[in-house]
Each structure stands twice: as structure tokens, then as C-alpha cells.
Queue: 4 jobs
Job 1
Amino acid sequence: MTEKERHIDVWDNCLRIIGDIIDPRQFATWFTQIRPISLEGSKLTVEVPSDFVREYIEETYLDVLRKTLRRVIGADARLIYYVKPVSKAPGMSFPAAPGTVQVNRAVSIPSYQPSGNPGPFVFPGVNRVQIDPRLKAEYRFETLVEGECNKMGIVAGGSIAAAPGKTSFNPLFLFAGPGLGKTHLAQAIGNAIKERFPELIVLYVSGNEFKTQYMDAVKRNMLTSFMAYYMKIDVLIVDDIHELKGQGSQNTFFNVFNHIHQSGGQLIFTSDRAPSDLQDFEERLLSRFKWGLNVELKKPDFKTRLGMLRARSFREGMSIPDDVLVHLATRIKTNFRELEGALISLMAHATIAGREITVALADQVVSDIVGEQQNDISLDGIVKTVCEYFNITRETLLSKTRKRQIVQARQIAMYECRNLLPGCSLATIGSTLGGKDHATVLHACNTVAALISTDKEIRRYVADLEEMLLVTVER
């Protein structure tokens, strides 16, 4: 068997296992029409005849597929679907769904009569309760894009997921502005823990929900049962902990914190500010927030924003030109949430209205979402940065020389001017870059845009320059 045939052998092994598990008629209907395409490391790509087939297999046989792939390929096995193109439509790739969230095992919760705290001779009843972890399946480490903005949080989260409650990162306190990935990272840790330690009870709740539950328990005279419920938790994730206002709810949470921490459980919190900046919190609670690791998630840099857009468009099965993604990553600098909103809106325009995905359409979508933004990048700034990057003088860049390296640098400079300065005319760009006419500038921009999708070196040049220019602006 050659290396090129290995994917066929791996898929044949998977089919033998699946064929022994599911109904033969179902197997013949759904699995015999799947064809293996490639195997890269632990990533197996298979072709399915339609998106309907992909969705049905995902809904019906996801667990069987995941377990079989892990058995044949290993624990890191990943499945990619390639939907066979119809007529002239391009084929699309979809990663397999992340799977469902592991359910918590049922636990026994004492149930007291609503007559205040029970005395020593009051015997409670016992309820069998299955606590919903309330985690989203799509919030996983695999769907996080790592960058300098979140690297420390991801590394710490990975350590916690490998040994919950046993690291010095307890509690883990993640803080950042809105849309910077706090909830995603916190839930990714929870999902990873549930996969590795299914026996642990994991619960995700917001600070406001905890406060509301506490107030309801007090109103119904069931505070003892409320406390018994939370003291069954092994891993407690509290999102937006800054919303936990009120002396009563904070005092109750203080006791829950102490119990989980002393019992070897794991605590994970997110907030829109650092513990030292929280207002109206008991000092003893604030001191406990500082016991473990405090991590700030910062605004994503250009490279991370672009990586997130590429990853999300891949997960959606959409092929979006790289120059369009670069444009989105350039225009939207604040957070991941706005980036995702712009990307989803762009895909909606393309699929529902049948419009071609272009930089012009992306610019329209961005303007609708975030409005026009002041761009501090200038023509002279781009020219200067391109010269520094390629180690040439301004005079050389603007000269009439036809040397390939200089022509390439000049064309990239024109592309960057048009991409980063959408209000700047082609004539102005041409005048600045050696007195070229608008047709020459348009040709240069189209050439670079085409090369970005096929030439790794050009793609790296453009990405590096974008990052240099945007870092300068964002400082």
C-alpha cells in the first residue's frame, strides 16, 4: 500500500466497523456512496454526494463516526466533508460537527420542606437530578484562533482541562471588553473537561442568573436546597461575574466558592474588568478572585482577525476570496463579534441575494455594521512601509524600471493603497506611485488579488505589510 492509498485503507477499516454497528440497509443507503479523498496527518477528507447526505449523517451517525475514526486513526482524528459539486458550482468543504456536549451524571440533591433551615431531627427527601452543563458544542479549543491577544488564556485553559482543580490556576479569571472571546474560551475549557472527565459535574451560568436563582430560592424559602445543588458542582464556570451584585447573593456565592475550591473543584470566571476594578464587591470575595490566575484577553491583531475569518468561513463551507477577508480584517479592529457579524452578513448577501462576494460588497457590509471609520493610514505611509519591507528606496519604487522585484513591490503598494484606503481614487494612487494612469493601477490590483489565492509568497508579503501598517495605526 502506497502513502497515496492510505486514506482508502483507513476509510475501508472505518466502513468495516460501522457496518457491524448499524442496520445493513441504512449502511447501504448512506455510507456506500461516501468516497475517501485524502488523509493528511489525522485529518480524513471524504466526499459526499450532497449537503443533504452530509446533514443526515451528522444528525444520525455522528457519535458512531467519531468513535470509529478515533479507533482507526487515533484520538486526534478529524473528519472533513467535501460536498460534491453540482454542474459548474464549486465544491465546498465542511468540518465534521464538534459533537454534542457530554451530559452530567445524575446526582442526589437533598430536598427540604420550605420551613426554614432544617433542625437536627428533620430528615430531608432526596431528589435525583441531572444538572445540564449548559455548554455550547461549538465553543471548543478547536474553533478558537490563537494569537498574541489570547495565547496565555488558551495555554492556561489547556492546563486546566488536563487537570481541573489541580493546577495553580484556580480560580481562572478571564477579563476583557465585549466580543473578545471570554465566553468561548471559558466554555471551551468546560467542554474539554467533560470530554476527558465525563464523571465530573460541570455547570456554566452567568453572574446575573446566579443572582436571580438566589433571589428565587430566598423568596420560596428554599435556600438550603439551592446551596445543596451548587455544592454538587465540580467545575463551576460563571460568565460576567461582575453582574453578581447584592450582599446576599455575594455572601451565598462566597460559601459556594469556598466549598468547591476546598473540595478540589475548578472555578472559572469571566468579567468585563479586572478583579481590582470590580465595584460593590465584598473584599473577601475579591481577594479570592485573585488567588489563581488573572488573564486579560486583548483586542486581536490583524493576523488573528484574518485567521478567525478564514476559520469561520471554512466552518460555514463558504469559499471567500482572500482579498475580501483581508479587507474585513483591515476595516474591523475592535473584536471578534463584530468580525463574525460582518462575515455572516456578507455570506447572507451572497447566498440569499445571489451577489458575488467582492471587496466592494464587503465594504458595503462593513459600513452598514460599524459605520465609516477614520482611517489613519496614508498613501505616503503605505509607500514608506513597502519600501522598508522590500529594502528599497522610494526613488527606486517610483522609477520606471521593469525589474521584476521592483514591479512586484510597486503593484503590491498599489493593491495596499486601494485596499486600505477605499475612498482613494485609482488616479490618485497612480499619481502618487510614479505617475501611473488608473488603468495601470487597476491592472496591478487585479494581478495581486489573483496571486494572493495561488502564490504563498505574495500572500505572505501582503499579510506582513497589512500587519505592519495596522500595528502602526493601532498603537
Job 2
Amino acid sequence: MTIELTLPTMTCGHCVRTVTATVQQVDADAKLQIDLPTHKVQIESSQPEAAFKAALAEEGYAAA
């Protein structure tokens, strides 16, 4: 399943690394595409969207 999230607080390379690490903690096999200028993240995973949203929110990247 493809999950699309907008993370308004993701604004730099450090943010991208943190978001990537957080997604991989939820699902190590997840495929991730990040578009930093638009703050969009696409995640290909069998895990539920809520799991990613909760983990990202804990790191300070709440989905809009």
C-alpha cells in the first residue's frame, strides 16, 4: 500500500535523515520517496498508516 503524508516541519537534510530512520524503524522494508520542497513523503509498506503517523509525530514531524 502507498501512504502519502505531508510533513510541514520537514525542512532540511537533517529532517530527511530523521524521517527516513523513523520510517525504517516502523518497517525496515518500507520504500520511501521524499520531496523536501513540498514536504511530501510517500511510503510503500504493508504497515498501517497510523503506525507511521504516530512514530513521526513522536519525532516532531506530525502529518498535516
Job 3
Amino acid sequence: MKSESANSSQLDKVATLPPPRRLSIRIISTLSKSPVGFIGSLVVSIVIILAIIGPVISPHDPIDGNLRARFMPPGFADDSGVYVLGTDQLGRDILSRIIAGSRVSVLVGVVSVLIAGTIGVIYGLISGFVGGTTDTILMRVADGILSIPFIILVVAISGVVGAGLTTLILILGFTGWVTYARVIRGEVLKVREMDYIVAAYALGQNRVKVMFFHILPNVISSAIVLAAVQVGVTILAESSLSFLGLGVKPPTVTWGLMLADGRQYINSAWWMTTFPGIAITITVLGVVFLGDWLRDFLDPNVRGRG
């Protein structure tokens, strides 16, 4: 009985906290119970911190090289300092370049997903809510865009406007919205038939208000989960395109460009490709793990069972 009363008292204390404080406690509590979520949040937090404070903590300049220190293995040291992960063909520090590349990965991943998510959510919301002929036309347009091979679309756009960081972000943003549109449309088709939507109409609310104030808040969690996963997909796409020469151009440092630079030296300088590849793998897995935890965290059925 004492244990039950103590638990009840703790729950009452949490319930009386302000909403942001209650949310923070619930996030920390669920993360502590989920190894996958904890690892994912830890990896994503480290990458974001590196992207923000990278220039401050980088041991060397990621762009300037030292030709006397070309192809030095991990742990090499000279008068200019220690090269923990070795150097590349121009004597540039691999660790510093990985830290610098994290900024591009975070920027491309977050901004591209924001663009794609915003377009896709609005598109899917309108398509599912209006229905009828409008829904059919909008979905056929989305299917048409989805049928175009991604690489061909990137090559065509890059050939017209030129390659670069801004171009890559816009390409990934304006080609990735279709997935959001289809997911949100499916959610809207279910939600718009529910009783509380009928009640909102009965109370005299107009269609625009119902769509944005009643339906959107109840389908946005699916978009958030999808966005979390798509950040990892976008980072992988950026690295792939940069590796193929279709993405970011030097002297901007990206993990994909580091892989491209090191592929011809893989037998003699394995560290040039190994460490950027590990950075990409860990980051993408961390984002996927965090997205998997976020799906469970936002699912009311899972919360109810917890």
C-alpha cells in the first residue's frame, strides 16, 4: 500500500508540472527505457554538437594541407600536431575534415527534410481533405514525379542550374515531398471521417479551419516520424551524390567527397575511406534509431500500453 501511495504521489507531482516540464520528464523517462532510442539520440546529439562547434574543436584546418605529411597513417605526429585519423593525399587532417563534413550533412539533412516535409504535408492534406477529382489529379501528379528515376532527375537539374550545396538542398527538398504527401493523404482519409470532425462541422466551423486546426494536428505526428527517418536517407543521398560528382563541389568538405578522394588510394591509404564511411554509417543508423523510438513515443497505442 505504501508503494502504491508513493507512486501515486509521484504521478501527481508530475501531472502538476507545466506542460514543457512534463514533456521533458516523459522524454527522458522513455529514452532511459529504450536502448535504441538512447543510442540514436546520443549519436544525433554528438553530430549536431560537432556541426555547431566544429571550427572551434578541429585540431587542424580541414582545407589547408601539408604536403610533407601526405598519406600519413592514424596517430602520426609532427611539429604541427597529431593527426589522430591520419592524412589524405594533400596532407589534410582526416579527423578535421570529418568534423567539417558533419556541418554539411546536418545542413543538407535538416533543410532538405524541412522543405520536402512542408510541401508534402500541405499537398497530402489538401489532397486527402478535398478528395474526389482533385485528389485523383494530385495523386497522379505525385505518381508521375515518383516514376522518374532519382539519379536522372538530379543529373537533369544539376545540368541546368549547376551543382553546389544550395542546388543539392533544393533538389533533395523538391524531389522528396512525394513520400510525405502519400503518407499524410492516407492519414487524412481516416481522420476526416471521425466523430470529432463531424462535431466541428456541426458547431459551424468552416472547412479551412477544420483542415488546419482539427485534422492537421492529428496527422502531423506521422510526418514527424517520417521526417526523422528521412534525415538519414537524405544524408546518405547527399554522400552518394557527392561521391558521384553530382553534389557538393570542393573546397566544401563532405563525407561523400572524402570517399571519392580516397577510393583510388584504398589499398595504400585505407583510412581515407574507412573513417568517412564509418561516420556516414553511424550517423545514418543513429538517425534511424531515433526515428524508430520517436515512432513509438508518438504512438498513443504504445503510450497507453506503457
Job 4
Amino acid sequence: MKKTYKFHVNGMHCNACVVLTESELSELSEVSKVKASLKNFSVEVTGDFGEKEPEQIREDLTMVLKPHGYTLSLEKEEQKIVWSDFKIAIPVALAFILFFILLQKLGIVNLITASKVSYGTAFIVGLIASVSTCMAVVGGLVLSMSANFAKEDNSVRPQILFHIGRLVSFFVLGGVIGALGSTFQLGGTGTFILSLVVAIVLLILGINLLDIFPSAKKFQPTMPKFIGKYAHSLKNINHTLTPLLVGIATFFLPCGFTQSMQIYSLTTGSFLTGSLIMFSFALGTLPVLSLLSFSSLSIKKYSESGVFFKSAGLIVLFFGIFNLINALVGAGIIPPIFNF
């Protein structure tokens, strides 16, 4: 007999988490329907679980989600903010920011400019994104493929195809977005609005990583959920080229970091610039995703510490504030504030 049970999800941060939760639980044979909610941080599961008690069902479902960093509870758990994490997070973030400002001053890298997001910025955003909860779906896909192909003693070639598909698709589709921007002839006002959107998205992402304002997670923009679920389901197709297709599909997954770079690519109005921005972003995600592919590394284990997320959040806020200032300077609303 089918019944519906509601559980609270601990560890849910964004719509990527919603997609991953629904996709993983819906693959269970006893489950017929799954509906997760970011607004309530909950999931409703409908299925035939026999004579099992709710607590046993909770334990079974948690076993499926735990590798991805989520646990279920019957009662909503009160979020505890560990303010002491900031004692370490603030110095770490400041050291990181000052280091790259120094590199900028020395002319070694061009991470920050007064008028645009540079390739270095896109790379750093990608690096941060790869260890954030926003990339949970991509990490889940990589781990699933690693496990599936390892059973067939074929663990290297599929992973290489996945990363090739991801890098190539971000380059080509980033270029398409950039070229698309030129057809709209955005002009100064359009470019300013989209640059402002990029800054706001980064600010929301940074606040979410700090994990001190749970309500802010509801404002995080994302692609329609069905696109992410379809991309996630590709991993179940048993074909040699499946890893390549999954790598390409990651361009459309619901990650706010990815969307912020996609929006900026649109403002460039250039195929080449849009390509290089998205390629730099994908390149930034490559180190951690490669470790996920060829080892037992878990994003959640790697970045389990609240200090890590708070440090990353402060760095993303830094990029968000700079993009906001750059947009306002570019539009002539305020004079230049910084000379680097």
C-alpha cells in the first residue's frame, strides 16, 4: 500500500540539492514519487515501504543521500550558526584576497579589472564553485559514473570523456551565448543591467555559503528544475558515449555560479570572449572534479568544515562587491574607487 511520508532535509542549500535529492530517491524501486522543497527544506516521498516504521524509512533513505552530504529527520532541526568559524574564515579570506590583489598589482595575473570579469576571475569562481554545494549535482554525477564504470573495470576512459565533454561544451556553448549577446545589441543599459545581475547573483551565492541567512537560499536563481533532472538521468543510459553526453549536459545544471558566468558571457557580445570566460570557469572546476573522478574524494568530506564554506563565501562576496562597483563605474554612476 502506497503512503506519503514527509522528512526534513539537512544539508540542502540550493536548487541543485533539490534536483539531486529527487533524482536519487526516485531511483529506488519502492518509491513512486518524490517532491523536494527548498522553501521548507523538506522532501515528500510516496511509495510502498511495507510494514516499515517512519524511522526505519528515514534511515533507509538517508543511506542513499548521505554520500552526497544530506541526512533526513522526522522533525525539523534548528540550525546552529557557529560564529567562531569566522575567527579563522576572515583571516583566510583576507589572505586569499590580498594575495591576488598583489598578483594584480605586480601584473602577474589579470584577475580583476575596472570594466569586466576577466578569465582569472572566472577561473577562481569556478574553483570555488567546484567545492560548493551548488555543484552537488555534478559531483553526484561524477561519483555515480565512477562507481558504475569501476564495476566494469573501466574507470579511466569514461572519466576522461566526461571532462572532455564538459570543457568542450563550456567553450562552445559559452561562445554561442556570447554571440547571441551581439545579436541583441545590448548597448550600455543592457550591459549594465546584466552586469548588475551577475553581481547580485554572486552576492547571494556568497551569503548562502556563509550559511547564516537560510532565507537567502530561496532567492538564488536557477534554471528550470526539469532540465537539471533530465541531465542527471543521462547517467543511467548504458552507452559508451554516455560520459561525454553527461559532461556536455552539466552546462545546463542548476548552479548559480555557472549561471552568473553565463549571464556575463551574454554581455560580451563575442563568441571568442564568451567561450574563454566559460572555458576558464570550467577549467577552475576541473581539479576537484578530477579528484572526484579518480579517487574516493567526496566534496562534502573535503569541505565539511564550516570554516571552509565561510571562507569561500567571503571570497565570493568580494567578487560580488567588485562586480557591483565595476558595473556602477562602467555606467558612470560612481567614480572609480580602486586603482587595481
